[in-house]
Design brief:
Structural class: alpha/beta
Number of strands: 13
Bound molecules: pyridoxal-5'-phosphate
Helix content: 25-40%
Largest sheet: 7 strands, mixed
Distance between the termini: 16 Å
Order of helices and strands: HHEHEHEHEHEEEEEHHEEEHHHEH
Radius of gyration: 22 Å
Amino acid sequence: MPELALRGGKPVRTKPYPSWPVFDTDEQNELLEALKGGRWSIGGEKLMAFEAEFAAFHQARYGVACSSGSAALVIALKALGVGPGDHVLVPAYTFVSTAQAVLDLGATPVFVDVDQDTYTISIPEAERQLTPRTKVVVPVHVAGCPADMDEVRKFSDRHGVRILEDAAQAHGAEWSGRRVGAIGDLGVFSFYQSKNMTAGEGGFIVTDSQGLADLVWSFHNVGRDRRREWYEHVRYGWNARMTEFQAAVLRAQLRRLPQMMTKREDAASYLTRRLDEIEGIAPLKIPPKVTRHSHHLYIFRFSSAAFGGISKESFVSALRAEGIPCSKGYTPLYAYGFLWEAMREKVQDRSSLKLVNAEKAVEEAVWIPQNVLLASREELDDIVEAVEKIKRCSGELT
Ligand SMILES: Cc1ncc(COP(=O)(O)O)c(C=O)c1O
C-alpha cells in the first residue's frame, strides 16, 4: 500500500495555508478615498503620502514609487549612469529582471557566485569577476536576507563601484540595525502579487541622495524635471509611474507589515528549530548581522543522500502532493541562453561558466512562500510531518 500522496496515499494536509494577498477595510477605505480624490496618477495625495511613508520606513531620505520592481531596476541603473560598455556585477542566483535591467540599458551583466550559506552575493567572488569597466554591484537580498552590506560597502569603496540594492524581496529587512534599500546608493523594491506587501504590481526606489532622487523621478516620468513645466522634458525617460490606487492599497499594506514581519520571523525560527532536527534538511543560515529578515521565502537545503537518493524535483513534487506549497526556485541566470543572446559584449565564457554555490543551490534549495509563515505552529508542524513522511517512504519514489 503506498503511503505517499504522490502515489495515491492520504496527504498530510488537505487544508490550504493562509491565502495571499490579505486585505481588510483599511485597503477598502483607502481605495474608495483614492477613487473619490479624483487625482489618479502622479500628484495624488495618497501617492505622495506613500512615497514619504515607505521611504521613512526604510530610513531613507527620498523615495519614488514606480510601476514595477523591474522598471525600478532599469531606472535606478540608468540614474547610476549605466550604459553600453559598462559591466554590472549581479549574483547568478536571483530573479531574471536583475540581469535584464542591465541588458535593457545596453550594458553587460557579469554573473557572480553566491555565498554558500545565504545565497546572497559573495564579495570574494565579486573580486574575481571585477573588470576595469565594472560600474555597479547589485547585492540582491534574496528571500529577504540582507547581503553582507559591510563587505559590499568595502568592495564599493575599494574599487569605486556604485551599489544598487535589489531589495525586491526584503521589505523591512535590516543589516546591522539599518533597514535595507538606502545602505547603498539606491535600493529597489517590488510590490508584485506574491511580495510581503502588494498592490498586485508596483515598485519603489529609495535613496539618501537628493541628486539621485531627482534623476530617478525624471527617468520614471518620461524625462520631466520636477521643477519645470509639464511639457518641458529634459532627458530621455520612461513612464514607470505608480497609480494612486496602488499607493492607496500599499499605505494600508505598509501599516500591516510590522505585525506580519514579527509573525513571519516567529514562524521561521520555529520551523528552523523543528526542521534542523531532520537529518538531510538544513534551513539556510541567518548571519548575526541580519537584525531583521523579511522571510519573503523560507529556504531550506535538501540532501538527496539522506532521502534514499531521490532528486530534489521528486522531493518537491512529493511535498506538494502532501499539501505543502513549495517550489524548486531559481535556475542560475547564466543558464538562460536568451540573456547571452541579448549581450552586446561577452565578458565571461558561457561554455565554461560554472559557479559552484549557485549550482549547489539548484541541487538543494527548496522554497516555501511567505504566506505559509502566517500559519499557526500546529499548521507548520504539518511541514515537518510531511518531510519526515517523504523520508520514511522515499523508497516509493525510486
Ligand atoms: C529579486 C527580484 N528582483 C526584481 C524583481 C522584479 O520585480 P517586479 O516583479 O515587481 O517587476 C523581483 C520580483 O519578483 C525579484 O524577486
